[in-house]
Design a protein that fits this description.
With 329 residues, the protein is mainly β. The protein is built from 2 helices and 15 strands. Strand 4 and strand 5 form a beta hairpin. It is 5% helix and 33% strand.
């Protein structure tokens, strides 16, 4: 008798399925880009979802050139402040920090995250630089809907151009603010890194989607049929079992930027009654095509695409952005 086809339940691509160490995602790799010097990442707060009426930009679509409705996610993107810069050198063990400089006019709120730095003699400039990055922090005091006013600090890589141009760009931005339009434009792709909603401890069926056992099973239905073979005489990590579900870092590749709104007071994006669980958008915001991981008010990071296959779009036409209430009937 032939062996029946029985694919495993649940992807092994996301292991171990444990809680994330941080409430916001960490960018672990940076793609190389061509073109002018720019920052390769940005951060914003997830607001909620709405829909837009737009002209279908996909050339191979059945509705190409026609008006279609599309779901979009609103992300509030207040400017980031450049608190410092770091130059990296490289050896056989990888990258290491060779030079670091912090701005003189640091925001006092940043010292809730790091100890206050004493002014000291600046180290001499290094001659060999392999990578340039900016130390930036968020400005949650500008966002009314975010309860925590303690800024988050992370690194942003400077890409494009030559290494000399990157160094000059980083030195010019030290102590200043950067906005979303310095990172990306409408029609381009971004990778979204965020931490998913936490679901707590769940069982086998909900966590892995395993098949329910037969109704004549002598104990339960929502369980696995076996923990594995006798040998090896331990339970392998490939066996679906109950445990933590959600609150894990995920990266969604190739999310297209639909629209960037620099001033919400002139171009309203707020729905009637405010976005559920968030409130009103008062800072610059961006509309991303489709959904992204994470809960409302959660900090998400956007990075230059690492696996882009489709070209960018320059003639993106948006007819209408829905501002109808999302509160329900």
């Amino acid at each position: 008798m032939a062996t029946p086809h029985h694919p495993r339940r649940g992807s092994m691509g996301y292991y171990p399925r444990v809680r994330a160490k941080s409430i916001f995602g960490t960018i672990r790799s940076w793609p190389e880009i061509q073109g002018p010097v720019k920052v390769q990442a940005f951060a914003g707060y997830k607001v909620g979802m709405t829909h837009v009426l737009m002209v279908d930009y996909r050339k191979n679509s059945l509705t190409a050139g026609q008006e279609v409705m599309a779901a979009v996610t609103v992300v509030e993107v207040p400017p980031l402040t450049v608190a410092g810069l770091r130059f990296y050198d490289e050896n056989e063990n990888g990258l290491f920090v060779s030079y670091e400089k912090w701005a003189d006019n640091l925001d006092k709120s940043i010292f809730r995250r790091i100890p206050e730095r004493k002014k000291s003699n600046e180290k001499p400039m290094v001659t060999k630089v392999a990578d340039v990055r900016l130390i930036v922090h968020t400005n949650p005091q500008l966002v009314k809907s975010i309860p925590s006013k303690t800024p988050e600090i992370f690194e942003v890589r400077v890409g494009g151009g030559t290494i000399e141009e990157r160094i000059k760009y980083a030195q010019e931005k030290l102590g200043k603010q950067i906005t979303f339009d310095e990172f990306s434009k409408p029609g381009k792709f971004v990778d979204v890194i965020g931490v998913t909603k936490g679901k707590g401890f769940t069982g086998h069926v909900e966590r892995f989607g395993i098949k329910l056992l037969h109704h004549k099973n002598r104990k339960h239905r929502r369980m696995i049929g076996t923990l594995g073979p006798w040998h090896p005489d331990w339970v392998r990590n490939t066996v679906p079992q109950a445990g933590q579900m959600g609150f894990q870092q995920r990266t969604v590749h190739n999310i297209r930027v639909i629209k960037y709104i620099s001033d919400p007071t002139k171009e309203n994006v707020n729905v009637k009654g405010g976005f559920p669980g968030y409130g009103v958008v008062t800072n610059p915001c961006v509309l991303l095509h489709g959904s992204i991981p994470g809960h409302m008010k959660r900090l998400i990071k956007m990075r230059d695409p690492a696996r882009q296959t489709s070209p960018d779009v320059t003639d993106l036409v948006i007819r209408y952005v829905s501002t109808e209430s999302k509160q329900g009937d």
